[in-house]
Amino acid sequence: MKKFLYKRGDIISEKDIEKLANVFSVLGSPVRIKILSLLLERPYCVNHISKALNISQPLASQHLKSLKEKGFVVCERDAQRIRYKISSEEFKKFLKKLIYEIKKLEVIK
After folding, report:
1. CB under 8 Å to 34, separation ≥6 — which residues?
2. pTM over 0.85
3. Which of 39, 60, 83, 92 could make an SS bond with 43 (beta carbons 3.0 to 4.6 A apart)?
4. pLDDT digits over 52-103, tens only?
């Protein structure tokens, strides 16, 4: 198995590269990016997400399922509702930093 070097001599394997590519493919959907951006504010239920993004509830649920499977979001039960939120404060900080850095590169205008 071929290995690749990155910062300070750390090694990343071909298998890890495949995993990373799979993770990034989940983030490659504009709808999923919009959902994550919305969830940066606070937790929301599927109903609110679908209304805010003007998409159907089943479509919102499908995208949330993909984000949940990769560990980007988690569910919390609030009485009879299920609310989705960013999985951790560290990931929330990472997303904010990623958006900031991409804007700096002028990729997003």
Report:
1. 53
2. no
3. 83
4. 999 999 999 999 999 999 999 999 987 888 999 999 999 999 899 988 888 8
Q: Flag whether pLDDT at 41 surpasses 80.
A: yes
Beta carbons of 31 and 67 less than 8 angstroms apart: no
Q: What is the DSSP letter of 2?
A: -
Number of H helices, E strands in the chain: 5, 5
Sign of CA dihedral 56, 86, 94, 12: negative
Q: What is the pLDDT of residues 20-38, one digit of tens each?
A: 888 888 888 999 999 999 9
Helix H or strand E segment including 89: helix 89-104
Contact 55, 31 (CB under 8 A): yes
List all residues 6 or more positions away from 30 whose beta carbon is below 8 Å from its beta carbon: none
